[in-house]
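Task: fold both queries, return tokens.
Query 1:
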Amino acid sequence: MIVEALGNFVKGLAFKRPGFAGTALIGGFLVVAALAVQISPAAARYASLVVDGRTGMELYSRHADTKRYPASLTKIMTLYMTFDALKRGKWKLSTRLKVSRRASRQPQTRLGLKPGQTITVREAILALITRSANDVATVIGENLAGTELKFARLMTRRAQVLGMKSTTFRNASGLPNRGQLSTARDMVKLAVAIRRDFPRYYPYFRTKQFRYKGRVFKNHNKLLGRYVGTEGIKTGYTNASGYNLVASVRREGKHLIGVVFGGKTGARRDRHMIRLLDRGFVKMTRIAKMPKPPLPMPRPTPGALLLAQAVPAEAESNVVVAAAPAKEEPQAPTAIPTEFFERAEIASVAPPVLRHWGIQVGAYSNDGPAKAIIVTARDHLGPALRHGRERVERVHRRHGTIYRARIMGLREVEARDACAILVTKHLPCVPVPGDVDVASVPLDN
């Protein structure tokens, strides 16, 4: 509408003053460009992502990999570092943290701490989760690392370890800083990590209110008690970021993690998050009804093939063995010494070892595409399968060498769910037990 109005304005000038048309046209374009520069930062604040918290399957995404200002979502990492100090025994919940003059002067929101005062670690945790107190965040950073700047560097290093490659921290609170950036995808990774690594302390995120020195501070996360199954975790706001939220919801055996950056108001952000989560639960229900990918048949062992050739025809109906590959010509039965049966391994198709499952996402003529497809698969699967081992296997076949792209070290349910995710993204995927040789995946040349 603005561009159209400016265009009409320029046309009007050209009609009234023909000699002025060129200048007006240029001026109009400059005004449009200036307005675009003013509008784009506000529009660029928005980003969102909803994933299956169990598998990492992406259910909804908008600008999920574009860097944004995290605001007080930064405090999730501050809490991660706090929980880590508790887990390592560096701090206890009763440990008292000293308040510096610098910490007491942090801008709102604050708990109202005074220089020289102390606060327990437990009180600090609850103040961050409910009040989102900036003075408390600085207290934690200074007491843990000496200065808040050093603490921010530690936060950034830990973020890199957690796979948050697009995140940098400059302070412990999320107060405005041009260099403090993150993405919706990185915040999902952090939400998964803090729950996975600190199950003892994670329930603090459910705290609805916190009483301190006669005052009661209510949690800024309004989804608690309002949206069924919400278990946390954190809100955030600055003028530059807009209203942000990371939410974790468990309901009817399903787990969703949602991130919204750049809401125009807290209420609109919350309503938008609820709509995204509702859609996510509906989509998960549909995916659960999809047929599971078929399992590959295990290759028969050499002993099974030899035994199958030696069994008399009249006994075949009572023996179950794996069939030989279709391309091989059948051979006439051969006489086998009796002592062979004492040493031979009688083959049977045993159930696969559940802890040794994985997925195969393609077989290629060289290792480049195999490595690339693993990276692509991981991007779609998210952090839930970060424990899986990436493997490119070089296999010699009659028609040449192939390179199989696999992610191993999964449980059966993880492998099946991963393939269900990748199939919806139009990517090849076959769940495989660790001792199964899959050679039926089409080659990509």
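Query 1 returned. Query 2:
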Amino acid sequence: MKFYNRENELLDLCKIKEKAFNDYSRLTVVTGRRRIGKTSLILKSCEGDPTVYLFVSRSNEVALCHNFYGIITRTFNTFVPKESSFARLFEFLMVYGQQHKFNLVIDEFQEFYNINPEVYSLMQDIWDRYRKSSKVNLIVSGSVYTLMHRIFMDAKEPLYGRVDNFIKLKPFASHVLKEVLADYKPHYTNEDLLALYTFTGGVPKYVELLVDNCDLSMPSMIDYMIRDSSPFLAEGNALLIQELGKKYGNYFSILTAIASGKTTSSEIMATFDNMSIGGLLKRLEEDYEIITKKRPILSKEGTQTVRYEISDHFLRFWFRYIFKYQDYIEANNFGDLQEVIKKDYPTYSGLVLESYFKDQMKESQRFRNIGSWWENKNNSNQNEIDIVGIYSKENKALIAEVKRQYKNFKPEQFSLKVEAIRTKLLYKYEIETRCLSMDDM
């Protein structure tokens, strides 16, 4: 698959490279979840210039340095001292940068925590001594966001305050998915677009896998993802176990409950026999940014009317079907699991469609607040409204109901909901109403 999007990030990286080469060394951090395209973006920005690319695998420091020695020697075709310390290799590169301009890319930088945490303080000393006298464009990247944030944003850490540019990559927006489909399936349908959004969440590597291996229809995507040796089957584990640590089992249980529709703290607690899980929910939300706390739009911060949702669309899918139905996978019963997903797909994708339209509204940059609204009465959700958007420059609100098919829209019921929110919340706003269906994608 060709390189898509990332124009703004690429421009930022090229500008800071120019400053590093013409002025003095700069440090850029690129982070984001696995498969988001960090390495592709970085290497794209380095094209045409000498580049040393070092991947920090989970190894011992001596073996790592031996590998790096070979890479540096081949890149510069010059004498490189054989070192068993990464700090000494890094110092060599910074000294070399006093006479030569080059990009230095260190991928999975957070792995030094497992190899030798002292590397960070040693690098800080070297960077501070040579930064102004060298011309090295240093780019470090990592997919364990909590560690990367800690390394560079925690005031107690040695590399705090050394970053010139911090980039956190996000998934492809809907207009990029449309561009991909237009290139690889010119006569795609909105059902194809919704399926690609539902299964990948716009994560470039997942999009690439589907583009290269199936016809981009919903059934074909499911058949490719749910099969023997599929790269998708273990992806949730690969993404989260290192991030969440030894207690990942409890976190996985919470995420499975949320993916299955248990979105309030009381519903989630019930799956734990009412064990206290407030701390786990807080960490998933604030430290790991895996779940998001949702309140009715315009409600106060302290309101108890709260729901949780998994922020990452692929992880929603993975916990709802792949993790939940591990018994099918262990029994190599991929056909039945494919049928389970296909049967449930209309219901599940209808829920995802709401997120699709919210994302489109964010991309339009016309709204200052986008959310949903509901009331809790007698433990049942009353007057629930899928989407409420408050316009940025007008005293106006958009209220929308989302249906896969417009024929399922019930105008009379919707009107009652609109009057309820108008009376209780939006009495000062001009209100625009819509039903959004797949025809509006």
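Both queries returned. Flag for query 2: The mean pLDDT is 94.
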